[in-house]
Design brief:
heterodimer; A: Rossmann fold; eight-stranded parallel β-sheet; globular; B: Rossmann fold; 14 strands
């Protein structure tokens, strides 16, 4: 997997941007690169990049997140240090953008610097199992709304087809037609396919490149939702 | 297998409402329920429905009142402080006997509180909130699938009994994502001869009103309404029992607290503790019979709640204080960990 200095993840809300951004940052770190991840999500109140602060720190990834993330203050403000990502060209930067066009507005102010440097990948995260992006046409509409909001064109697609704990290899493999169509409509390549580690292992010979995702365990996951208690093939 | 989609709890409520025939949504944004309004804003114009962001919560609940008087399926949604603002309208809707669906995705309180999850509006939802003698049917989902299915159930019950159904969720279930399907949803329809649909000169006109000039007439209406409530208490309680067969300790928890409690029950069983869970799905009507039956079998109850202890009063009432009831809780936007619940189960067992 070839990396650009800046990798930006944007898409429909709930498409999986945060999980992918965190895992991608960890992968860069595992390859020995200096990495900084910025949470630019001004939309979501819960389940943020900051939830992964510990694992990021353990792996030497610098986290920049809004001062009030995960607090009781519902303030869509971005930290000044987020600029470091676009100005400090020695680090590999990963940006987690808020969902839909409303989330992407926050990216706009960094776009002139990103374009000037010209060493970035703007990735559209697609999950065909989400109800408002069930068809490639609907996904394309969301892409165009995001581009209009932030002023930056997408360069790549990522296939993040998943049904949460019910994701099977078929879920991911069945999304290939959808992704091919979205690729044809947008003229953009599919940069990678993502899947939870155990699913990724099962499909790695049939799809590439695969970016395995390690997801956080949540306190409200039921016994039946844990990967070890679920059949791999549905 | 029914088609599965991955949804946020709040989106599931909105989609389920549309599938239940709701074409009128009036709301005002507040975290952590804003996705309901956002989803409605995107979808309603495409299906000929109405999405309207009112100038305030008070305006939105009165728009619901007006639309409900015409007999159409109508809803609003908010989070804790916003529901307080709607309280007057909830009372008027109850006093007028019109059906509506109201969603409360709770956050920490009192006051402006915070945006993190909570269950501290239990009293407000089950004991009134607004003024006067009235009840609301209160449904407490514990998964994204139930956010959808109880929304449809809520519309059905509201029409059946001509009253408000409230979905009492919390921020976590509103924000979390799980795979769900809609195909097993059963949508009931009811005749509404009382609705204000225009007489076309063919019938006497209907009146929807909560003002009574004579106190005896108001009393009679209240008596009749409470006869209806009695039917609901007999026929509509819903609950889930988990590992209760041989239980000596019974954990009672609803919504997100029940999921944490379930993990704690599994962990306690692994330690050899005979513990089970009763999860009220309807908070009003409270599953009194299930609790009363459990009181004859178990030695102790634990109420697990995201508040300072509200449902615990109904547990004590339902069990007629036959057994001790302890509280395991966090509040202000915090959630008990499975370890905390497990520890309270261990303590309860020592008391056995």
């Amino acid at each position: 997997m070839e990396h650009k200095r800046l990798t930006l993840f944007a898409g429909h809300y709930g498409s999986g941007k945060t999980n992918i951004a965190v895992n991608y940052a960890l992968r860069l770190a595992a390859e020995g690169k200096p990495v900084c991840i910025a949470d630019l999500d001004i939309v979501n109140p819960y389940f943020r990049t900051k939830d992964s602060a510990k694992v990021l720190e353990q792996n030497g990834v610098t986290l920049i997140s809004p001062q009030f993330a995960n607090t009781n203050v519902d303030l869509p403000a971005l930290p000044a240090e987020a600029y470091r990502l676009v100005t400090d060209r020695k680090v590999y930067g990963v940006m987690d953008i808020g969902g839909d066009d409303r989330g992407a507005y926050a990216l706009g102010r960094y776009v002139p610097a990103i374009v000037e440097e010209g060493n970035y990948r703007m990735v559209f995260v697609a999950n065909c199992c989400r109800p408002l992006t069930r068809t490639p046409e609907e996904a394309l509409e969301v892409m165009q709304e995001i581009e209009a909001a932030c002023g930056l064109r997408f360069t790549d697609l990522i296939n993040n087809a998943n049904l949460g704990s019910e994701t099977t290899p078929e879920t991911v493999l069945n999304a290939r037609d959808y992704m091919e169509k979205l690729s044809a409509l947008s003229g953009l390549p599919v940069f990678a396919t993502t899947a939870m580690t155990h699913v990724a292992e099962a499909i790695k010979d049939r799809v590439e490149p695969v970016l395995p995702l390690q997801l956080q365990e949540k306190y409200f996951d039921l016994p039946s939702q844990k990967p070890e208690n679920r059949p791999l093939w549905g | 297998m029914a088609e599965r989609v991955l949804m946020k709890g709040n989106e599931a409520i909105a989609e389920a409402a549309i599938r239940a025939g709701c074409r009128h949504y009036f709301g005002y944004p507040i975290t952590p329920q804003t996705e309901i309004a956002a989803y409605m804003a995107k979808k309603m114009p495409k299906i000929g429905g109405v999405f309207l962001q009112a100038e305030s919560e008070i305006a939105s609940i009165n728009m619901v009142y007006g639309a409900a008087a015409t007999g159409c399926r109508v809803m609003t949604s908010s989070s804790s402080p916003g529901i307080s603002l709607k309280a007057e309208g909830l009372s008027y809707i109850a006093g007028s006997d019109v059906p509506a669906l109201v969603v409360n995705v709770q956050r920490g309180g009192p006051g402006l509180g915070g945006i993190q999850p909570s269950q501290s509006d239990y009293f407000q939802a089950t004991k009134g909130g607004g003024h006067g003698d009235y009840r609301m049917i209160v449904l407490a989902p514990a998964s994204v699938q139930e956010m959808a299915s109880l929304t449809i159930k809520g519309f059905n019950l509201a029409d059946k009994y001509r009253m408000t159904s409230m979905i009492l969720a919390d921020g976590t279930i509103g924000q979390m994502m799980e795979p769900i399907s809609f195909e097993d949803a059963e949508i009931e329809t009811y005749e509404k001869p009382w609705a204000l649909t225009g007489t076309e000169g063919k019938r006497a006109h209907n009146i929807v009103n909560s003002l009574y000039l004579q106190p005896d007439a108001l009393e009679k209406t209240n008596f009749e309404r409470y006869e209806r409530y009695k039917l609901i208490e007999e026929n509509e309680p819903m609950w889930e029992e988990y590992m209760m067969d041989d239980a000596e300790v019974c954990v009672v928890a609803f919504g997100i607290a029940s999921r944490v409690a379930k993990n704690a029950v599994v962990a306690a069983r692994a330690e050899g503790i005979k513990v089970g869970l009763i999860r009220p799905i309807t908070l009003w009507p409270f599953p009194t019979k299930a609790l009363r039956a459990a009181a004859d079998k178990v030695k102790q109850f634990i109420s697990v709640e995201l508040n300072m202890g509200q449902m615990i009063e109904d547990v004590r009432l339902a069990t007629e204080c036959k057994r001790p009831v302890s509280l395991c809780n966090r509040t202000g936007g915090m959630i008990p960990s499975p370890e905390q619940v497990l520890e309270s189960i261990r303590q309860a067992q020592k008391g056995v």
